[in-house]
Amino acid sequence: MKKKISIAIIVLFVFKIYAQEFSSQVKRFITVDDTEYAITDVTVIDGTGSASKTNQTIIISNGKIKAIGNDLEIPNGTTTIDGTGKTIIPGLVMLHEHMFYTKPFENWFSVGQMTFTFPRLYLAGGVTSMRTGGSIQPQTDLNVKKWINEGRMTGPKMHVTGPFIEREGPKVPELGFIDSPGEVSKIVNYWADKGVTSFKVYNNITKEDLKICVEEAHKRGLKVTGHLCSLTYEEASNIGIDNLEHGFMAASDFVKNKEENICDPFEARQGLTNEPVDGETINNLIDLLIKNKTVITTTPNVFEPYTDREIVPGNGLDALAPQIQERIKEDYKRAQGRDAASLARFNKNLTWVKRFYDKGGFLVAGTDPTGAGRTVAGYANQRTVEILVEAGFTVEEAIKICTLNGAIFLEQEKLLGTLEVGKQADIILINGDLNFDIKNIRNMEIVFKDGVGFDSKRLFDSVKGQVGLN
C-alpha cells in the first residue's frame, strides 16, 4: 500500500511540473499552453554569442527545448507557430531590477512599491528571470516570488536581494540604516533564512561593513553586490565583493585625495567627468576588476540623457499614471539642451563598459527603474538591449550579456540563458529581424516562460496608466 501511494505522489509531482495550474488572473494572458509545439522557419539568436541562424525550427515539449535545427521532423498533430520573418532569443535574465518606482515629494526622494504592475511589465518586456538589485520590501518581494511560482500571479522567475545595507546619509525614508558593523551579520543571516539569495551594500557603508557582509554572505553561498560611493571599486573588489552596479557611473575611484569611508557624490561625479577616456586610473581599475573576477552590471537606461531622446526610453510613457506623466513631461522639457555633461558621462561610461568586456571582464545588465522616473520596468529592459548595440556591442553580444551572462551569475546556466536542447523553454518570439534593426526588440509577441506563452502586448496593456500607483 505504501509503495502505491509513493508512486501516486511521484506521478502527481511530475504532472505538476509539466502542467502547472494557473489562476484565472494569470490564464487571461496565456496564449500557448500546449504540452508540445513547434515554432517554424524562424531566425534564432541562441544567447551563446554565436551568429544568428535563419530558417530554424524549435520544438518545445513539457516546458523544455526538445530539438532545434533547420531540418527537423515535426510529429503529426503538433501545434505549430509560423516564425517567418520573426526572431527568437532566450528570455532575458536581468540583474538590477526593482519592485519599486521613484515617487518624489517636494525636496524628498522617495520610492513606492509596484507589487502588481512591475512583475507583469517585466514579463511583458521579455524578462523571464530577474534579480532585484536591492529591496525596500523584501518580504513583499518574497511573497510575490512565491505566488508567481505557484501560478497565482503573473511575472518572471525572481531572485530576491535583501534590504539595502546602508549607513545614514541622504534622507530616503524607505531605507533602513545601520549604526555599527555588528548589525550587518544579523541582517544577512536573518534574510538569508527568509529566502533572499543576495545582498546589496549602498552609498555610505564602511570597509568593515562590507567585509562582514561578504564574509557572512559567502558562508551561506550567497553573493554581495554594491552601489558604492564611500568605498572605491578598487577597495570593494579587493575585499571580495562579487558584483558592482551601474557600470562605472558609481565609481569614486577618480576622486583626488578621497577620504576613507566617506561619500562625496559631487566629487565622485566630478572625478568621473575629469577622468580621460583612456586615463591611467580607469585602465588600471579595469585590469584589477578582471583580475579579481568582479562582475559589473551595466544599467545604461537609468542614466540616459534627455535631449532629443524619448521622454520615457523604450516608449513606456503611457504606462505611467496621468499625474506622473505630467511631472515627467515637465522635467523632460526643462532638461532639453541642458544635459551635455550628462551625455558626455553617459558615453564615456559605455566606452569603459565595452572596454571592460572586450578585455575579458564579466558583464551583466539591468535597468534600475528609479532615477528621475523615466525608467519603467519592461520597456527599460528592451531599451537596455538597444543601448548596448548602440554602444558598439554586436546584437549577439548584447543578447548574451542580457541572457547567458545573467544566468551564469545566478548559477542557473544549466537550466536557462541559451536556446539549447534540454534547457527550460524561456523564449521570446519577436516580430522582425534584430540584426536589421535592434529596435525590433520592442515587437515582442509571445514571451515563453518554462514553455508557457504569455501575450506581451496584453500584459503591457493591462497596466497602462497604473505605474506609480500599484
TrEMBL record:
Pfam families: Amidohydro_1 (PF01979). It comes from the Bacteria. Residues 87-451 form the Amidohydrolase-related domain. Gene3D superfamilies: Metal-dependent hydrolases, Urease, subunit C, domain 1. Signal peptide: none annotated. Coiled coil: none annotated. This is Xaa-Pro dipeptidase. It comes from Winogradskyella haliclonae.
